[in-house]
Design goal:
This protein is an alpha+beta fold. The chain is 38% helix and 20% strand. Helix 6 (129-141) packs across helix 10 (186-195).
Length: 258
């Protein structure tokens, strides 16, 4: 058991370590980001870690991570988690995102702490205020949940340089493996919260076998990846995070962070 725990912790550290040469393409305006977001918005992030690179490669997308903006919902919810957020983040506790972290599980984080990342904001369309509150409440119920770290080895396999295997064989288990492995990616947790109120992230259109008529089939939340929010017809892409030109500096020069 001790050896297994030590190996797991070592793998988590390796996968979550930040890589050099991260390129921030567009400057973020934190004030505009805070003012423009509302609870239920999904914030997509281009991460800096090894696991982020792996997810982006496997999903063929710029987005490796998804978090849900909950604003001050945790403070209104109350309890020990709210008190802890106030102690840790102060005034920023009114502008939180809820996310799943491989090392820490489901946690809250000030959205401003993602200001040096490439971001995209996706807003669900057509949901009532009551349904949005139910979605946020469903996310809050998972706060503090820690995923079974045994499943992290399922993700770690994809970093093994098995050059003799076709790439499609290395990707396939991510989608066909255990749901717990996929839930390390926060997009599945968020998709399930929307699914609870009958709001699919990626509805699929298929043929009914008997009548050959068209019908809408919802993709199971466990198979939702961060890019699916970006591509979904049920979500609007917003530009609330972009810095105006006078704050952006030299637009022609790339922002590179090591």
């Amino acid at each position: 058991m001790f050896l297994h725990d030590a190996l797991t912790k070592g793998l988590v550290r390796y996968l979550t370590a930040e890589l050099p040469s991260y390129q921030r393409r567009v400057p973020n305006d934190v004030e505009r980001l805070r003012a423009g977001l509302r609870p239920g918005d999904v914030v997509l992030v281009e991460g800096k870690s090894r696991i982020s690179r792996m997810i982006m490669s496997l999903s063929q997308s710029s987005w490796s991570h998804a978090a849900m903006y909950i604003g001050d919902a945790l403070l209104r919810w109350g309890g020990p988690h709210a008190e802890s957020a106030l102690d840790r983040f102060g005034a920023e506790a009114s502008h939180l995102v809820l996310e799943s972290d491989m090392a820490e599980g489901v946690r809250v984080f000030p959205v401003a702490w993602y200001a040096d990342h490439n971001l995209r904001v996706c807003r669900p369309q057509g949901l009532s205020t009551d349904d949005l509150e139910r979605v946020v409440a469903e996310m809050l119920r998972h706060l503090g949940l820690r995923y079974d770290r045994r499943n992290i080895f399922d993700l770690g396999r994809y970093l093994t340089p098995v050059h003799l295997l076709p790439a499609r064989w290395r990707r396939r288990p991510l989608y066909l493996g255990s749901s717990s492995s996929r839930e390390v990616i926060c997009s599945a947790l968020i998709a399930k919260a929307f699914y609870r109120v009958g709001f699919p992230v990626q509805p699929l259109v298929g043929d009914a076998s008997a009548s050959h008529s068209r019908q809408v089939i919802s993709r199971h939340p466990s198979y939702i990846m961060p890019r699916d929010f970006d591509l979904s017809a049920n979500f609007e892409v917003l530009k609330v995070n972009l810095a105006p030109p006078e704050k952006a500096g030299a637009w022609g020069r790339p922002l590179v962070e090591g």
